[in-house]
Amino acid sequence: MPASRRPASRATFTFSGQIRPDSFAEFAAHRAARLSIALDTVALDATAARLRVSGAPDLLDAFEMAMSLGPADCLVREVDRNDNN
Amino acid sequence: MTGTQWVPLALARDITPGTSAGTVAEGAEIVVWRDTDGRAHVWEDRCPHRGMKMSFGFVRGDHIACLYHGWEFDEGGTCRKIPAHPELEVPGSICVARYGCTETGAMIWAALPLGAEAGELPALPDAVPVRSITIEAGLISVANMLLNEENAVIEGALATLDSAHGPLAIGVQPIRPGAVTLHIATRPGASTETLLAICDWAETLRRTAEKEIAA
């Protein structure tokens, strides 16, 4: 079955490091839209962003990779992933 | 250039079926490609995956594939295949931005800027492509040189004039401040000698324009 026809996966990511909340939120929203992922920001401050997402499993992986790189003015040092399926 | 405008990006002849070429207009990087059925496409020259220029990619029928990771896009700009995820039905949100485009007067034209509604470009008379030439001089100084020719008129991005070698239709593509590409066409039936003479005329124009800048 094609990946995007499988039941959507859900995951909660915590990206920790040096976070500029505005640009990180904008970056996350853009990437989520590009990957057709539903995004819910659980918590966001200068040290961490906690994001709940759902979408095609392969695209959640892509989202994790994109966000681990982050926008240019943020530095992600650690990613914690909790799959909710 | 201000507002929305049709801008010529290439001589139609120079983009053969199954090929792509990168260009720049008003500082925007653009890919012009033609599918194997002959339809021309004008897109932002940037793969949404890693930013690689799509102009380095490969045309596959009515798709174009990025050189970098093989992401393949259909004629609507939507990604249809990600080779690293063969089972994935790619969502339509993964796409390349497209420009409105048309072909007329032996040139491929695009509506700039991106997302512009430029209306329809009136059909131009049939023409024979001669050559494109890039001049390292400002748009205004090149336009003034063209206007020095007999019966010269510039409407939008098209100059028409009567040169010593016959009538010319010249598409003016602003590359960036200080650089312009001219796409030159002439009347059907022009002889090889005439076409060569127009090429010489264009090179003289370039030398003169660039000399004025250097002076």
UniProtKB/TrEMBL annotation, chain B:
PROSITE patterns, per database record: RIESKE, RING_HYDROXYL_ALPHA
Keyword Metal-binding: yes
Residue ranges occupied by any Rieske domain in the UniProt entry: 7-110
Superkingdom classification of source: Bacteria
One MF annotation (Gene Ontology) recorded for this entry: 2 iron, 2 sulfur cluster binding
Keywords for the protein's UniProt record, in alphabetical order: 2Fe-2S, Iron, Iron-sulfur, Metal-binding, Oxidoreductase
InterPro entries for this protein: ARHD_Rieske_2Fe_2S (IPR015881), Cholesterol_7-desaturase (IPR050584), Rieske_2Fe-2S (IPR017941), Rieske_2Fe-2S_sf (IPR036922)
Protein name: Rieske (2Fe-2S) protein
